[in-house]
Amino acid sequence: MANIISDETIEYVGILAKLELSGEEKEQAKKDMGSMLDYIDKLGELDTKGVEPMSHVFPVKNVFREDVVTNEDMRDAVLKNAPGEKNGMFTVPRTFE
Amino acid sequence: MSILDMTACQLAAAIKNKEVTVLEAVKAVLAQIHAKEEIYNCYVTVDEEGALAQAKEIQKKIDAGILTGALAGVPVAIKDNMCTEGILTTCSSKILNNFVPTFSSEAVLNLQKAGAVILGKTNMDEFAMGSTTETSAYGVTRNPWNYEHVPGGSSGGSAAAVAANECFYALGSDTGGSIRQPASFCGVVGLKPTYGRVSRYGLIAYGSSLDQIGPLCKDVADCAAIMEVISTHDKKDSTSVLRQDTDFTSALVEDVKGMRIGIPRDYFGEGLDGQVRDAVLKAAEVLKEKGAIVEEFDLSLVEYAIPAYYTIAAAEASSNLERFDGIKYGYRAEDYEGLHDMYKKTRSQGFGPEVKRRIMLGSFVLSSGYYDAYYLKALRVKALIKKAFDEAFAKYDVILGPVAPTTAPKLGESLSDPIKMYLGDIYTISVNLAGLPGLSMPCGIDSKGLPIGLQLIGDCFNEKKLIQTAYTYEKIRGAFSRKEDR
């Protein structure tokens, strides 16, 4: 395997991805990511100098519209899906002391 | 003909002629679901009560002449990554195990306006990441042609439900082949429309630049009729494209005289099963005999599509799946210390291994220092792949090839080696990268008794050429259906 993923990299990616991996999962992730990157490195064979990165296949322009409310108040219905709700608001863990 | 053997259009016609009532159709398909779900597990949720209630309402509107369309009264199954108001929508993930949307996706609303009866939500690979429907948190779906085999994925529940007569047609979504490949494995027709043809509003995003909703159904006429209903311009999806050429049923014409069909040599190389190759080439021969101009050509860049695709799809997935944070909806971990720990525990417990693998890869290729080398490089390769297709479509109306290198593998054989599984997508994913329409239809049965799929690829917004070619081939091929349960 050409791409060796270090413990630090997996820690860092775990922070970015907001995932907490077990020791076993980390080892597996190092292996999987290494072999995926080896595979992706194949793209390096292609000369893409001067080629613009293509994010959208059609020449589309940004779509603008007036910012007008079209739906009714759905607060109660939306909150029904919340894991925690109090006084018409989402409950979240304390974020500052 | 029994109700269950009817195509969607045949059933709608029978309902219109008062030969069958909507309630009879719903009861027949619910009875089939009761009889077969224990084996196949096509659905995550069956909304029996809702379906029976809808049947009565829709029958009234048909009798009153309000609903007159080609699909009025026909029961449909929806992949579980499309929001349905009031019906559990899980994406086959634990993290959405209790999510009941407050709105319906545009494609589902369009079907309901046309008089569809929503039966329930079909099983899939978790967040549409997979090719076998084995990564679902709600059990595997089995292939109705042989229950020891996978139905394909990620829209495996939709494809299997159509093949097992557990619905009359279904909606799926296709990010890298997720409609076409399960359609191929289950011997049904599937179409991935041009990017922008069908609104993605209410489709829970995986790879937003690649995702597209489309039909899985029994034949090409149904495919055209469903496309006419779901292809609408939607202001709520800024990538939705306004088009006038949505009269897809006008392409149900048995004629391919002068149709220029290109066969990419690169799709017939190493890794392709011999029986699949023979069946696909035989289909090309059939079209040639009907007057199509068939020739081989080199498409090029085929082996670069998979690494480009997995880079882009993983990057978009890592960003799209950030919304699952345990606050607004879905699962939340029970024990945690503070906000960040809650995020991490919720996501780690809520997502399965394949989803985590792709989020990790996506986070890495987007991270500072690697973004240019991986993500931007993949987008540049995407531009080259699009150019290769543009050149091909300057010469050809339709590109013909296999859907997948093999027929459906056995359950449990695919997940251990991710790269091997990803290689199975080699003929389907470049279509998503280039935003093209692709149609999958059965063209034979292998020695194991499993269906073989034929893929027709068109230039952007040329679905009608695909439908015309597919319809012509289907007329010559004749009926294609599963004989009995195995």
Provide structural commentary.
- The complex is a heterodimer of chains A (97) and B (486).
- In chain A, 35% of the residues lie in helices and 4% in strands.
- Chain A is mainly α.
- Chain A has a domain at 7-45: Histone, subunit A.
- The longest helix of chain A has 18 residues, at 23-40.
- The radius of gyration of chain A is 23 Å and the shape is flat.
- In chain B, strand 7, helix 8 (274-289) and strand 8 form a beta-alpha-beta unit.
- In chain B, helix 7 (220-230) packs antiparallel against helix 15 (463-477) and helix 9 (302-320) packs across helix 12 (371-395).
- Chain B has 15 helices and eleven strands.
- The model of chain B has no long low-confidence stretch (mean pLDDT 96).
- In chain B, 61% of the residues are buried.
Structure keywords:
heterodimer; A: mainly alpha; Histone, subunit A; two-stranded antiparallel sheet; 3 helices; 2 strands; 4% strand; flat; B: 486 residues; alpha/beta; Amidase signature (AS) enzymes; 11-stranded mixed β-sheet
Count helical runs of chain B.
15
**Within the CATH hierarchy, at the fold level, what is the topology of the domain at 3-255 and 437-458 and 466-477 in chain B?**
Amidase signature (AS) enzymes
Rg of chain B: 21 Å
Secondary-structure element pattern of chain A, one letter each: HHHEE
Q: Strand-residue fraction of chain B?
A: 5-15%
- The percentage helix of chain B is 25-40%
How much strand of chain A? under 5%
Q: For the terminal residues of chain B, how far apart are their CA atoms?
A: 22 Å
Shape of chain B: globular
Give a topology summary.
The complex is a heterodimer of chains A (97) and B (486).
Chain A (H helix, E strand, L loop, with lengths): L6 H11 L5 H18 L34 H5 L5 E2 L2 E2 L7
Antiparallel strand pairs in A: 1-2
Chain B lengths: L7 H9 L5 H19 L2 E4 L1 H16 L11 E5 L26 H8 L3 E6 L33 H8 L5 E5 L6 H7 L2 E4 L20 E5 L2 H11 L29 E5 L9 H16 L3 E5 L4 H19 L17 H13 L2 H13 L5 H25 L2 E5 L15 H6 L5 H5 L4 E8 L5 E8 L4 H15 L9
Parallel strand pairs in B: 2-3, 2-4, 7-8, 7-9
Antiparallel strand pairs in B: 1-3, 4-6, 5-6, 5-10, 9-11, 10-11
Helix pairs in contact in B: 2-3, 5-6, 7-15, 9-11, 9-12
